[in-house]
Design a protein that fits this description.
Shape: globular
Distance between the termini: 25 Å
CATH architecture: Up-down Bundle
CATH superfamily: MFS general substrate transporter like domains
CATH class: Mainly Alpha
Largest sheet: none
Structural class: mainly alpha
Mean pLDDT: 84
Number of helices: 14
Helix content: over 70%
Number of strands: 0
Order of helices and strands: HHHHHHHHHHHHHH
């Protein structure tokens, strides 16, 4: 019937979303892979793990600082070539790391990757939303975000396992090959989308709503990465063998997929309640690690439940930023990108400091408190987190 609404995603849009899934897979794997290779990198350059954890901090700090200005400067450039260029930069940065003779050059490679990341998620989130009608944007964002979950499920564990079987240089070379293949695939499958029109007159949504979402984003990502950056030491402390870190990261990534699936059930119908539930679950599960984290089964159970909760959080943050309609979609995505990476950078930096001074239990306390604070903010800042999606 003519009055029925078609909620199917077209073939061209589906191909484009598939390309974004693969590109996001490479992006997230590149961002997070030092977490799995932390012990190897520490031994290779004779520095403590709290120092090599700063490889995550440097990367995130660059994204936090550059996401908004780079997105603004490149707004007049065609979206597809710009997105492909960011994927190529990931490959170049990983190649620099794979060949680096010193820790300084490893940091330089992370700088290249950080520049790519500053643009990639700002462009790709708006790209995914532009491929479908507005009523399907939450679903499109969740599909594209599944690439991030695949990065946790397959990317980081696979690259970590390559590092354990061969060495960390081989792990980064594998990422180079993956980046090149994904760039070629995206060039073939990704449809071109028009540039976002410049804002005319006053924005449709209040800037305060976007600010509220950004603040929650920072706090939630801080809570996650203050502990996740040091998840390898956490698991080793519980008695897990180092050779098992890669397989366990695979299981944790699978837990993140469950969380993303749960987010997909509510993100277009009841995003506020779904977001609150994910944050509250994360706070409880992380806090429970104080009681269960001393044994391998307890640490695995608590960590898995925490990752299920966090698997839902990034897509809720992205959708909330875009739905404020305070600025153009690409700039809203840039605000989201900057806020999440500000949280990542602050979390990994403070986590390293707390870890070095007081050990993993203190880091667990900080993480649980941050998730609880984020839940309170969502409950209080109603303008940025309405009950209805549109």
């Amino acid at each position: 019937m003519s009055g029925e609404r078609d909620d199917r995603i077209g073939l061209a849009a589906a191909g484009g979303l598939g390309a974004l899934v693969l590109a996001t897979f490479v992006a997230i794997t590149t961002e997070i892979v030092p977490v799995g290779l932390l012990p190897q990198l520490s031994r290779a350059f004779s520095v403590p793990e709290s120092t090599t954890g700063l490889l995550v901090t440097v990367y995130a700090a660059l994204v936090a600082v550059l996401a908004i200005p780079l997105t603004h400067l490149t707004r007049a450039l065609p979206r597809k070539p710009l997105l492909l260029g960011t994927i190529a930069l990931y490959a170049i940065g990983n190649l620099v790391i794979a060949l680096a003779p010193t820790l300084g050059l490893v940091v330089a490679g992370r700088v290249v990757g950080g520049v790519a990341h500053a643009l990639f998620f700002s462009v790709s989130s708006a790209y995914a939303a532009a491929l479908v009608p507005e009523r399907l944007q939450g679903r499109a964002l969740a599909i594209a975000a599944s690439g991030a979950s695949l990065g946790y499920v397959l990317g980081v564990p696979l690259v970590t396992s390559i590092g354990a079987a061969l060495d960390w240089r081989a792990a980064f070379l594998a990422l180079v090959v993956g980046g090149v293949l994904v760039a070629l695939t995206a060039a073939a499958l990704l449809p071109a989308v028009p540039l976002a029109p410049p804002p005319v007159g006053r924005a449709r949504g209040p800037r305060s709503a976007l600010t509220a979402v950004a603040v929650v984003n920072v706090v939630a990502f801080f809570g996650h990465y203050v502990l996740y950056t040091y998840v390898s030491p956490l698991l080793l402390r519980a008695g897990l063998p180092e050779q098992a870190i890669g397989p366990v990261l695979f299981l944790l990534g699978a837990a993140g997929v469950v969380g993303l699936w749960l987010a997909g059930l509510t993100i277009d119908r009841d995003p506020r309640r779904g977001f609150l539930g994910a944050l509250a679950l994360a706070a409880v599960c992380v806090g429970a690690l104080l009681l269960t984290g001393g044994s391998v089964p307890g640490a695995l159970a608590g960590t898995s439940a925490w990752i299920v909760a966090f698997g839902a959080i990034p897509v809720f943050c992205t959708a909330a930023c875009l739905r404020t309609r305070a600025v153009a979609p690409d700039l809203a995505a840039a605000v989201n990108n900057a806020a999440s990476n500000l949280g990542i950078g602050l979390g990994s930096a403070l986590g390293g400091a707390v870890f070095a001074v007081s050990g993993i239990p203190a880091v667990v306390v900080v993480a649980a408190g941050a998730f609880a604070l984020a839940a309170v903010l969502v409950a209080v800042l109603r303008r940025g987190f309405p009950v209805r999606a549109v």
